[in-house]
Amino acid sequence: MAVASPATLAIGLITAAALALTPATASAAPKPTEKQLRAELKTLNAKVDKLIEGYNAKRVALAKAKDAEKAAKGRVSAADEAVADAQKRVAEIARLRYQGGGPTLPGLFLTPYSGGGFAVLEQLTDEEQAIVQGMAAARDEKQKAADEAAALTVEIGDQAAQVAKERKDAEDVIKDIQAKLQELMPFGTGKRSDGSWAPELPSGSDNITSRMRIIREEIKKQFKLPYEVGCYRSGGGGEHPLGRACDFMMSTGGSMPSAANQALGDQIAAWAIKNRSRFGVKYVIWKQRINMGSGWRAMSDRGSVTENHFDHPHISMN
Fold first, then answer.
1. Long-range contacts: 204-207, Cβ < 8 Å, 24+?
2. What pairs with residue 316 in β-bridges?
3. Above pLDDT 70, what percent of the chain?
């Protein structure tokens, strides 16, 4: 048995000591589960909606304040005209009394309106006094409305900036979560290194292939489906008897789907096309059109809502 040299022993001792002194690498934090990511995404979406709702409420309040200011200005303008008429009537009364030899209104004069307010003689009649008081009240109301509108404008500007920042922050996080959710999605089985797909036999009680089952379950996670999904059926040609196709129903009984369900069908079809290479989608049929990965093209009329695929997106797998 060979004996290790002193140099070899020394190197071994140094290496062992170095390893002993090296701190253990902290274990990486566990990745969040799909359920946790979806819950976080839902919370952030609710937060964004609340921010938008609050911002919109402030915009409505500002519009109302501006309307109030406009109405107040209108009342002030009407009061201006009323006071001008009153001034003319007072001057006419003074002139007539002077011409008739009767007692004049001693010291009768009017101080013109200025930004500071109105001043009138104590001898003005009750009617004239009421007009002037109404003028002052309208002016005060106008000023109050203008001040409130100005304050709201500043407040709206500040809040709009804050809302925009918070919304951008939330949207950035949402994008990150969506990217993580995309990473968590499974891949279709049987993909070859050259990008082609190996044939699969149907299996299970639902009589469909593994690839078809994977995308069907993923669509159920991604979207709230209104009706059952129809997959295997015997006869009739196409991929259904082979277990390689599913119909995602948007209505029942061959009727046209509601506007909301038509939009849902659009989303499912677009999602399947976007992820076709991940899952192994062969083609999608929806609304009398077929998409094999290079865009939609029209199909011939088959005579009914269902046959023309207006009530369900059809997804076929390789």
1. 206/231, 206/232, 207/231, 207/232, 207/243
2. 245, 283
3. 80
Q: What is the pLDDT of residue 208?
A: 98
pLDDT tens per residue, range 234-283: 988 899 999 999 999 999 979 999 999 999 999 999 999 999 999 999 99
β-strand pairing of 245-248 with 229-230: antiparallel
CA–centroid distance for 245 within its chain: 34
Tokens 């990965």, located at residue: 293
CB atoms within 10 A of CB 227: 15
Task: Inform me whether the pLDDT recorded for 169 exceeds 80.
Answer: yes
Burial of 110 (0-12, 13-18, 19+ CB in 10 A): middle
Sign of CA dihedral 244, 250, 254, 259: negative
- Which distant-in-sequence residues (6+ apart) come within 8 Å of 287 by Cβ? 265, 308, 309, 310
Claim: this prediction has a pTM higher than 0.85? no
**Structure tokens of 17?**
């000591």
Q: How far apart are CA 208 and CA 283, in angstroms?
A: 16
Q: Provide Rg for the chain, Cα atoms.
A: 40
In whole angstroms, give the CA distance from residue 292 to residue 239. Answer: 14
In the chain the domains, ranked by start, together with CATH numbers, are 34-184 (1.10.287), 210-317 (no CATH)
- Residue (of 206, 212, 247, 207) closest to 227 by Cα position: 247
Strands 289-291 and 296-298, sheet pairing: antiparallel
Name the residue among 234, 173, 226, 179 with its Cα closest to residue 202.
234
